[in-house]
Design a protein that fits this description.
With about 130 residues, the chain is α+β, with helices and mostly antiparallel strands. The protein contains three helices and eight strands. The chain binds zinc ion.
Length: about 130
């Protein structure tokens, strides 16, 4: 699969209100977008560093995936997102290489990207998101 760049790194946090000013201090740039992704039960905040974004993820639902992640592992890095040229083909290729997919078909993510996740069970515990513009 042809990866163009690291599109973003997703970080699970408890509270955007507290974490946005913290990451503005750390990264030296202002948060440029806050967006709710109902589908994933998250509110996201974005920062841009060169070609790569930092995506903070706050859960909007105690049963949502981010709440469960924080319960188990605490706040921290949640996923890495790679931008690919052709998401459909990339998913086919991963499947053919016996990489388990969470999303068999692309779906809409934040920043109006098409996204799909690979299962961390088959990627040494790293949650990988593939996305395409
Ligand atoms: Zn993401």
């Amino acid at each position: 699969m042809k990866i163009k760049n690291i599109e973003h790194i997703g970080i699970a946090i408890n509270n955007l209100e507290e974490s946005i000013p913290l990451f503005e201090k750390i990264l030296g740039v202002k948060c440029y977008a806050i967006e709710e992704v109902k589908d994933q039960k998250v509110k996201t905040a974005f920062f841009k560093i060169g070609e790569t974004k930092i995506e903070l993820l706050e859960s909007t639902d105690p049963d949502g995936p981010i709440s469960k992640f924080i319960e188990k592992r605490g706040q921290g890095v949640h996923h890495i997102a790679f931008k690919v040229e052709n998401l459909h083909e990339a998913l086919k290729e991963m499947e053919n290489n016996n990489i388990q997919l969470i999303d068999k078909e692309p779906r809409k993510g934040a920043e109006s990207l098409n996204i799909a996740f690979l299962h961390p069970k088959s990627t040494n515990g790293v949650l990988i998101e593939l996305c395409e513009e």
